[in-house]
Specification:
Layout (H helix, E strand, L loop, with lengths): L1 H29 L4 H7 L4 H12 L18 H20 L4 H18 L8 H12 L3 E5 L6 E5 L20 H17 L1
Helix pairs in contact: 1-3, 4-5, 5-6
């Protein structure tokens, strides 16, 4: 009798696990996750993940390779966005006891909220955020403290940290130029309509 009860409980647990995976996969797809991330973070078959993706997005998932270089995170704007995300991620990891995908999703939600509040376009996709965390786990990236402002920013692991200055304190000369040009163009169009 006990063996039958244990088997039934195991079967129910598998159904519940699958339901949780489906729910997580749907949330990840809504946030823009790529198939490779879905496959790595759930126990669902590729066929089920494709169905979930098509149902949530209404289109087939994009093809192509995932980001594989740490260098993308070092350029000015991606570095600022990645550093913001990592601050949220570390908070959930250290103070809320979350880790892995749960911390990534919560941190990404906060990142999107902050970006929306600032009326800025998001630079970091969920898949890039997930890749960023994996680079930290693999000890390819680290957070370095800016000597000027004291903030923590994404940097290559094992780079010297003495005298490190972030991209906000030492902005490149072209930083923000494209946004300023877009604002000028919008204003010119508004003036032309008057």
């Amino acid at each position: 009798m006990t063996l039958l009860l244990e088997r039934e409980q195991m079967k129910n647990k598998r159904i519940i696990d699958e339901a949780e995976d489906i729910q997580r996969a749907a949330e990840m797809v809504r946030l823009g996750a790529r198939m490779q991330m879905l496959e790595a973070e759930t126990r669902l078959s590729r066929e089920k993940l494709l169905k979930i993706y098509k149902e949530v997005r209404g289109v087939s998932p994009p093809k192509g390779m995932l980001p594989f270089s740490t260098d993308w995170f070092m350029t000015w704007q991606p570095n600022v966005h990645s550093s913001l995300f990592m601050g949220y991620y570390r908070y959930f990891e250290c103070y809320e006891g979350l880790n892995g995908l749960d911390a990534i999703i919560k941190a990404y939600h906060l990142y999107l909220d902050q970006i929306e509040a600032g009326k800025v376009e998001p630079v970091l996709s969920l898949t890039r955020a997930w890749t960023l965390v994996r680079f930290f786990v693999a000890d390819l990236l680290q957070l370095s403290e800016c000597h000027s402002c004291g903030g923590s920013f994404v940097a290559h692991a094992h780079d010297p940290q003495h005298g490190y200055v972030c991209g906000l304190c030492n902005m490149p000369s072209r930083a923000g130029k494209t946004r300023q040009a877009a604002v000028r163009k919008t204003r010119a169009l508004e003036m032309a309509e008057l």
